[in-house]
Amino acid sequence: MTTDASAGRNFSDQGHPDKDLRYAMARETIDIVRALWDSWDDAAVIANKSEGLFYDPSLVRPLNFQGRWNNVRGPLNLPRPPQGRPVFIQAGMSETGMDFAASFAEVIFCQAATKEQGQAFRDTMRAKAMAYGRDPDTIKTMPGFVPIVASTDREAREKEEYYAELVHPNYPDGAAQ
User: Fold this and answer.
1) Predicted structure pTM score
2) What is the DSSP annotation of 100-122?
3) What's the CA angle centered on 99, arms 19 and 103, to 5 degrees?
4) What is the pLDDT of residues 35-88, one digit of tens each?
5) Quick count: other Cβ atoms within 10 Å of Cβ 166?
6) How far is the CA of 169 from the CAs of 93, 163, 164, 166, 175, in angstroms?
7) Ramachandran region of residue 135, left (φ > 0), alpha (ψ -120 to 50) or beta?
8) Using CA atoms, how far apart are residues 80 and 141, in angstroms rounded to an integer?
9) Which residues contact 130 (CB under 8 A, 6 or more apart)?
10) Beta strands in the chain (DSSP E)
């Protein structure tokens, strides 16, 4: 949903919204899926075979979400997983993407060519997460890393040069915009 227009064409032929709108729509989607997973109380599944009861309906709540782009009645049509909900993962290097990730993500991908760049990104994301009232220790950053392994330094440099030649000229750093 927050990705560029080339991937966005897989989801709509109505054009691709601008970045700010995409992130606003994604934020609403995050609110919906969180609420759907929370529509089942942890104790809702009773799995009482002798009484023929899988769950206690009083512990499953409708959602009745009315948003700007979505209306969702709910509840989710299956119980919460044991951990409550899946892990939220986000990638985004723009300010908008980083703010979005800091507000909810537990794992955040980034592009970092050096250890220092990865550490700086981690520190930035931790500060942003704290600004959203989140414990910075609850997020992990995962810098993209492409190891080049060879028998010698010379062979490794040759491989690196070869891989660099494969990068599309519109994306000199190898990343889609």
Assistant:
1) 0.71
2) HHHHH-SEEEEE-SSHHHHHHHH
3) 120
4) 999 999 999 999 999 999 999 999 999 999 999 999 999 899 999 888 888 899
5) 7
6) 20, 13, 10, 9, 11
7) beta
8) 26
9) 136
10) 45-48, 53-55, 65-66, 71-72, 89-91, 107-111, 140-144
